[in-house]
Amino acid sequence: xxxxxxxxxxxxxxxxxxxxxxxxxxxxxxxxxxxxxxxxxxxxxxxxxxxxxxxxxxxxxxxxxxxxxxxxxxxxxxxxxxxxxxxxxxxxxxxxxxxxxxxxxxxxxxxxxxxxxxxxxxxxxxxxxxxxxxxxxxxxxxxxxxxxx
Length: 149
Known about the structure:
Elements: H1 3-9, H2 17-24, H3 29-35, H4 43-49, H5 55-63, H6 69-74, H7 81-89, H8 95-101, H9 107-115, H10 121-127, H11 133-146
Helix pairs in contact: 2-3, 5-7, 7-9, 9-11
């Protein structure tokens, strides 16, 4: 099945949640990738896809609005930096996940943590002294607008 056929079949309005779950659990990588982009996909399917070997699928899961908070937390050690950036930017990531990501070697990940409104004040205070100027600038901008200092 070509990518065009896969994508056009995903926009059939009468697909139910069970059919979408079947797409997410398909052995066909292109179908799983397409399913990971569907905004109404269930959290249980996204949890399944969070362990997919295809990094593109894990990236979609990390930024998906229906991904469970626990799934996001479990993805925090993903080896792909973009997955961690999407986790750090996801509004459904909890304080614990964001605190762990605040110690990531990548300043890009730490910068997204600094900009996430769910980041705890104690984590923001730690990031205030980050070695990278951009992270410190994001913290300063956030603290100025929220009066955290």
